Amino acid sequence: MMLNRYGSPGELFYIDEDGQLICRNNHVFEMNGAERLLREYRNSVGCRYYRSGKPRPTSFALSFSGGISAPASEPTYQTINSKAAGRLLAAGGVYNGNVEGFRKTAEQLGGDAVKGYEQVLNEQTAGTAIAAASILLAKRPIELGEVQDITKFVGKVRGDSVLLQDVEITQINYFKRTVEETAILRKEFNSTVRKSFLKELSNTPEAMNKFSPEMLERMSIGRNPDGWQVHHKLPLDDSGTNAFDNLILMRNDPYHQALTNYQFSITRNMVVGETKIVPWVKPQGTIYPK
């Protein structure tokens, strides 16, 4: 792989004998760009069929212009061992209920991987996070005691793990409302309730300390700040109402998306009139994150 037509094949990225894409210098990119490229490469390879079972290794003999280039030096294998990699491993440990196993992987990577891991999980937070993940991902039966005092939730957005803190996790008896009843409540919310909620919220110290003057001006006329959504803590599809204490303004990406993805996953197969006891995630306060 070359970044321009004058570079040599494999100068920055190359495919090794095992079909893995290797980056020679992770620091060339900002915002973890190299890691994202490597991840997308693995995802792409996983969706393709190769006659030999893997992509062909990079050929170092010919340059792009057709001339013979000098033999490349022995490839320097780069290990992804940044803090970002450690944070991803921590999320994987929570998601799979195997914090110790994923921590060992971070230790084996070396570098700053362990530091990144500990930014997300340490001895004080690991137990609670695993319990939350286990309950919410239905990896084992739910008991009432397990949902008490849990304040963290691990959701999914576009395949990536998202950690939400300062949430309440409770068991609710989810009752599937009729489409007609839900539509009436939704119409009321869209026409008047959301506007009134945002107008009232715009005058609170919490909102004034959180949002820019431009965002506050939008809220004062009943409009969402850019990138934010008003969320029902208990959904209208269940027993939720349009009361202000059931509403919260949430940053859409990734937090609101993570919650709605989870809610859809546990209720999508329910039919009208059906009831089901489910673990429910409720963000606290009126603005999330604070």
Automatic annotation (TrEMBL):
GO terms for molecular function: endonuclease activity. It comes from the Bacteria. SUPFAM superfamilies: His-Me finger endonucleases. CDD domains: HNHc. Keywords: Endonuclease, Hydrolase, Nuclease. The keyword Repeat does not apply. Residues 5-59 form the DUF8093 domain. InterPro entries: DUF8093, His-Me_finger_sf, HNH_nuc, T6SS_Hcp1_domain. This is HNH endonuclease signature motif containing protein. It comes from Enterobacter cloacae.
